[in-house]
């Protein structure tokens, strides 16, 4: 596929998607988001891909929504676009998404980052939801995911002041997994994505889905969901291969079946 707003590569079993509007700090316009979702879904359906790496540039992962598209649009026009419906499709990607985040991750960029399952941030990352400064609020999950990620009090502070936090503070809050020097963040994220991509594909997807359910289900319902996933994996060929390889002290050869 040829895209205008993103670039795509692959390394081993990792699909690498890079936001590519560097002159305006990867501002998220409708075309970029549409291309991104299309490619994420394509990679999700590709049996040769085990994990996805999502990144931007050293100066900006994504600095927010493209205000040029919104400044003159009426509320009715934006509602008719239903521009946030496409974001819901990102949350349905079954393969793990590793975010490699550097520089600005603001507004929609922060929301996109929070759609990643694991985030490796550079020490230059600046993360926040500044929509209130424009007289609006997050619309792609910012209020909901931020509360779940950092807790109500910290989320309230970030949302109601619009002030961003540093990479180190994001690490302390649990918003990112790891902070590394800017020259290493992409390499570290790719290394992690490759490690995940080498795992049995069916188990990876079932585990991701079960872990995400933990945010929405009561504990016992979540335990029941987990148990059903465990039983499902017992029936897989990869389970037989993994256990046999363990007993034979060799490297397993997983197929995703």
From TrEMBL:
InterPro entries the UniProt entry points to: ClpP/crotonase-like_dom_sf (IPR029045), Enoyl-CoA_hyd/isom_CS (IPR018376), Enoyl-CoA_hydra/iso (IPR001753), Enoyl-CoA_hydra_C (IPR014748)
Family affiliation = Belongs to the enoyl-CoA hydratase/isomerase family.
Signal sequence span per UniProt? none
Q: To which species is this protein native?
A: Brevibacillus brevis (Bacillus brevis)
Q: Which PANTHER family match?
A: ENOYL-COA HYDRATASE, MITOCHONDRIAL, ENOYL-COA HYDRATASE-RELATED
Record SUPFAM superfamilies: ClpP/crotonase
Q: Which UniProt keywords apply?
A: Lyase
Task: Identify the domain of life.
Answer: Bacteria
- The name this protein carries in UniProt is Enoyl-CoA hydratase-related protein
């Amino acid at each position: 596929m040829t895209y205008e707003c993103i670039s795509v590569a692959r390394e081993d079993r990792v699909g690498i998607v890079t936001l590519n509007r560097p002159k305006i700090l990867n501002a998220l316009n409708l075309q970029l988001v549409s291309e991104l979702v299309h490619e994420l879904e394509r990679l999700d359906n590709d049996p040769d891909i085990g994990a996805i790496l999502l990144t931007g540039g050293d100066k900006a992962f994504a600095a927010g929504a493209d205000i040029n598209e919104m400044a003159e649009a009426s509320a009715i026009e934006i509602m008719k676009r239903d521009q946030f419906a496409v974001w819901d499709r990102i949350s349905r990607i079954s393969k793990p998404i590793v975010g490699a985040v550097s520089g600005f991750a603001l507004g929609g960029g922060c929301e996109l980052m929070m759609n990643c399952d694991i985030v490796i941030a550079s020490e230059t990352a600046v993360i926040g939801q500044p929509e209130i400064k424009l007289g609006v609020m997050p619309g792609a999950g910012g209020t909901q995911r931020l509360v779940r990620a950092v807790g109500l009090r910290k989320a309230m502070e970030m949302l109601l002041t619009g002030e961003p936090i540093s990479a180190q503070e994001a690490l302390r809050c649990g918003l990112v997994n790891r902070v590394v020097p800017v020259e290493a963040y992409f390499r570290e994220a790719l290394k992690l994505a490759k490690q995940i991509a080498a795992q049995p594909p069916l188990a990876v997807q079932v585990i991701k889905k079960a872990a995400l359910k933990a945010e929405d289900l009561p504990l016992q319902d979540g335990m029941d969901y987990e148990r059903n996933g465990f039983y499902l994996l017992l029936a897989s060929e990869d389970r037989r291969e993994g256990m046999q390889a363990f007993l034979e002290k060799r490297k397993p050869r997983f197929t995703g079946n």
